[in-house]
Amino acid sequence: MLRKIQPDKWKHFIVGIPMGSVLQIACNWLVTNPLASGIIAFVIVAGISYGFELFSKITGLGRYDFMDAVASVIGGVLGMGLVWLF
């Protein structure tokens, strides 16, 4: 099943991991409530991921693919979870 995933989606997934990690660390530092910091980090990860795809669609500088944003968000959530584990 993992072999069926397009290489482009893997790139978005991999990029999402450090994005989610960095944003979760920043939110943990700025917001003392753990639930609120997680929600804020998730919203920012989702916003950046979809915003990048929307930028590609509007400007024509890239190829719009909603599933790219989904792959980035999944990677971002994994990165956020890694921060919580450590």
Account of the 3D structure:
The protein is an all-alpha fold and 86 residues long. Helix content is 81%, strand content 0%. It has three helices and no strands. The longest helix has 26 residues, at 34-59. It is flat, with a radius of gyration of 14 Å. The N and C termini lie far apart (29 Å). The mean pLDDT is 94.
Task: Supply the key terms.
86 residues; flat; mainly alpha
List the helices and strands and how they pair.
Elements: H1 7-30, H2 34-59, H3 66-85
Quick overview of this protein structure:
The protein contains three helices and no strands. It has 86 residues and is an all-alpha fold.
For the record, the count of structural domains works out to: 1
Rg over CA atoms, rounded to whole Å, is 14 Å
Number of strands: 0
Shape: flat
Total number of helical segments?
A: 3
The first-to-last residue Cα distance is 29 Å
Give the helix proportion (percent range).
over 70%
> Would you identify the regions where 5 or more consecutive residues have pLDDT less than 50?
none
| Percentage of residues in strands | under 5%
- Characterize the biggest β-sheet: none
Question: SSE string, helix = H, strand = E?
Answer: HHH
Global mean pLDDT: 94
**Could you say which structural class the secondary elements and strand pairing correspond to?**
mainly alpha
